[in-house]
What does this fold into?
Amino acid sequence: MKNFDKQHLLHPYAPSVPASDMQFVKSAVGVYLELEDGERVIDGMSSWWSAIHGYNVAELNAAAKRQLSKMSHVMFGGLTHEPAIKLAQTLLSITDESLVHIFFSDSGSVSVEVALKMAFEYYSSQNIPNKTKILAFRNGYHGDTFGAMSVCDPVTGMHTAFEGILHKNIFADAPVCMFTDKWDEKYIEDFKRKLQANHSEIAAVILEPVVQGAGGMNIYSPEFVRRVAELCREYEVLFILDEIATGFGRTGKLFAYEYAGIAPDILCVGKALTGGYISLAATLTSKKVMQGVEANHNILMHGPTFMANPLACAVANASLELLLASPWQERVNKIERQLEYELSRCQELEIVKEVRVLGAIGVVELYKDVDLVWMTPEFIKRGVWVRPFLRLVYIMPPFVIKESELTHLTNAIYEVIEAFATSLEV
Ligand SMILES: *Cc1c(COP(=O)(O)O)cnc(C)c1O
It folds into this structure.
């Protein structure tokens, strides 16, 4: 089996002949992944931000089975159904009241494509010419499809291979003001200058609020988000927030934009939406944006085959019900305190540049690039699943993780970084 994988299956951002073997997962329950030989490892990654309740969750399993016995899927053109309507009601009720329209799609990247289409169509439908660019940020990550790639960091965005054929957008410096730093207008200067100089060409600004994820795990000041929102209003460009990673409690707020006390024109959510069960994402927007998109009898031109898939919506409904009924904020705050306390020890290690924590996200930035081939077995040996990238060893565990399990994770991180530093010396 594993040999067939090695010869034929392609994996994310990986060579077709991998440098080391994939770990074979047999099953997963709670915060544990069960590997081939029965070994259990604690998942520090929540399967890339998504499995917030852990795995094999009774309520989500039941919801999926209930929905399966009714219908797994029907087309959304001309048809509608309860799982989608219920999910829309919930999402619109837990986000800003200005967001009243919702588009369901099958992945985060596609929800970003839809957001970009909304922004471009908003201007083209109203015959406002030249609004063909997006102002995005360095260190940003918004997905792997072509529109989404064009707003990722041109260097850390993992898409340098396509540089020549991507839509040319404008990039402002990444937010550098730390979460608790005192605000200074100098932090927003570069963005402000680029907006001032190019606003007549800019349809929208796109930003991951408070935490830039896959582009560098950068945690920054909510004041930055607030100032970007203000400047977007001042220069009349739309403001898109990508909460695909940060949404549903991960940062300590249900949505990270709440820290800034602002609301976007367009909001993308995904990843944890179904509790990590099935791919589903959504793009939410305001009445103003949809009226602009539909000016002069235009319509939003998008419609995936599996739009608002009933099975995915039913699981999302169960996941949100479970989340909202749980003491999620207490859990996330508790994880935050424990991560702060336990990961701060890593700062003793010379190879460690910085430790950053917000909500249920813990990041240890090194001075050196990590070595996945060396580190992965070291983590597995210590009973944890952690997948570092660039110079970052980071975790965002399921919210249901127990104190002792989290300690196990943070100890493993300390030990593996220490051993990695030693391995570099010899
Ligand atoms: C993961 C991610 C995406 C892309 O979502 P996919 O479901 O992988 O297409 C977009 N934006 C952010 C911030 C993400 O973390």
